[in-house]
Amino acid sequence: MNSLLSVSNIAKNYGDRVGCHATSFDLWPGEVMAIVGESGSGKTTLLKCISGQMEASSGTLGYTKRDGSIVVLQELSEAERRFLMRTDWGFVHQDARDGLRMGVSAGANLGERLMALGGRHYGRIRSSAEDWLQRVEISTDRIDDSPWSYSGGMRQRLQIARNLVTAPRIIFMDEPTGGLDVSVQARLLDLMRGLVRNLGLAAVIVTHDLAVARLLSTRMMVMQGGNVVETGLTDQILEDPQAPYTQLLVSSILLV
Amino acid sequence: MLNVENLSKQFTLHQQGGVQIPVIQNLSFSVDHGETVAITGPSGRGKSSLLKLIYGSYIATSGSIQILHEPDWLEATQLAPRQMMEVRNKTIGYVTQFLRVIPRIPTLDIVAEPLINRGVNVSDALLRAQHLLTKLNVPEKLWSLSPMTFSGGEQQRVNIARGFAAHHPLLLLDEPTAALDAENRSRVMGLIREARANGSAILAVFHNEEERHQVCDRDIAL
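ok -> structure tokens follow
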């Protein structure tokens, strides 16, 4: 079996400043990896580089397609890359407004993705959209409403549904529960974990919330100043952190 | 089933001037199928740490931990995260007093989850979960609720049900009966005997000496 995503020496510089130093790892089907670290540590930069949202300064991304063949993303044509990102990858932005089309209805936000993959039957697209609204616990009578009329938590759930409607194989999330109140966070966590398990997705989640990381992820990567300082099983990193920075981070958790 | 050789663990606390705290030194032992072994010793001797080392929550400083993950013997100290997750799904069950779950998930699903992770179909997993919850005296009216609001003893019993659900060949028990009343303690002891009869290798920390004598074949003193 091959890994789903193979990140090899991905680095990003912003001019003279380093966003993240050369980083390598493999992501396997069913794995949920959390990238944690303080703000400015390079975690979002890394996430954007490995998800094709941003071009890396150096390094390569290998991806195993559904047919088992391995492609290097940088070697694909723009059209091939875009197709792959539409069919196989999802990206959940911290601010749902960045991941949704705010000018069209909730239903259209979901249907649009299906149409991009060749869906043409209006009835089927609509029923698929309704199905997904229910799965993210949004009442189907809100299907024709604009996302502007949705609350923050509903928008985030709609964004997740928009990403999952095309059955991707990897989903990248940037602080998916940031800025939401705790009861909404709990619903989202429950939802995301169920989806990852039932759909066999792999996920990479950037978060600064170690409690979220603990509940959602199986493995963890700790970043500081653009470097990966520690990787391992989530419970191992939280219970037996090795690097000085990780020890500081873990010992700073507030207990409720 | 489990082979530990020359295992040592020390913590290095970088935030406190790099002070080193040795916990376990050159420990060797093995546990066979169908055997129940107690880890004994005063508080602070590393009983729980030993279980965490085997489960992979702690990193060994040196030494070897070999686990039979059918059909292969694996060196647990060298496994990648996904391999350790696979070993946990199929081979190692770990029961503590403390329940840690995502809010809102119904008790029944929490107990059934390890079985589903092991590849058992959902309806069979739910049946086994119901059976265990009944056995451990968790009232049926609570099954559809999240255990977050349960009493400490109820949460602990949910956690025990979850730990015993999947018939793991290697069970690590960290004071499974602490804080339970006599009635529930004896039910947990029943589960331990049942697991042993099924051939599981069990490594356990008990603070109650009488219970230890009831179920354990031998001791490892730390």
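DSSP finds ten helices and ten strands in chain A.
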